[in-house]
What we know:
With 332 residues, this protein is α/β, with parallel strands linked by helices. The chain contains ten helices and 17 strands.
Amino acid sequence: MTAPLRLRRDADAxxxxxxxxxxxxxxxxxxxxxxxDGYGLGARWVLETLARAGCRDFFVATWDEAVALRALPDGCxxxxxxxxxxxxxxxxxxxxxxxxxxxxxxVARWRPTGRSCxxxxxxxxxxLGLSPHDDMSGLRIETLMSHLACADxxxxxxxxQCAAFIALDTPAQRRxxxxxxxxxxxxxxxxxxxxxxxxxxxGIPRAEAVGHIAQVAFPEAQVVQVRRVPAGNTVGYGATxxxxxxxxxxxxxxGYADGYLRGFASRGTCGGGRFPVIGRVSMxxxxxxxxxxxxxxxxxxxVDYDLPSAGARSGLSQYELLAxxxxxxxxx
Length: 332
Ligand SMILES: *Cc1c(COP(=O)(O)O)cnc(C)c1O
């Protein structure tokens, strides 16, 4: 099987990013969020690569994702962030993974199993989690966690959430508060376990990470056709691009169905900045200006995907850029 679209994944960069985050986590263990298929990179590949480097604590969102990972490498644990529904119980009680309990109903559902679990407590984000005064008795809590709402900003909310987290008196083996951005806030936020996602995969959550985090995901698309577009003609849907002089154009096998969204129209670049994206993004195709370069049918072209700059160009978040990478990439 060959596809005209591939995602080159740099395992060394992934490991180096994890090591930097682990170092910044000090004495805390450093885990990895691998939900949404490892932020689009392939959860199984991330799991195996980071487990070899020494990572032990992994997080997915749902039991579907836990099952899709298959067997865990030796010594690794997996937590399911969305907790456990009635319809998950058969799978969950047979699984090596454990739920992160978020609601009183989930607590009531899990307590009779006597099995270990994690617990998420809400300290101000008002997304998932129990209230500090909810009944957590009778649970065997491995990791007590909370989640920061504004870790990527210098917000008073960070300290307030940290203080509220410290004030909890729920017994647990260890505690965990920080995502990627939270790790950059310093050791006060590390507790016993950190949970980076974005920065593992090349995202820059805060200025502190600039120069330390390397790009991991490199989309590359094959040229389906090249053509010379005479001055005054137009390219693509809506005829939005009309060159003033004769222009050499390559049409690449990538489009919005692959996560290369229309925010890149006339703004994205390929080939390390050499080839501007011209006109609109189609479902399966884009056009680039290759004037002055020798590019032919079948050539592979790198789609520039450094996350901070691609985000600034497209208006998408670094998270969206990764998680949107579609199913048609051959991941290599
Ligand atoms: C996704 C997630 C993380 C990882 O967050 P990043 O911002 O990607 O580092 C950590 N904790 C929880 C609860 C999450 O849902």
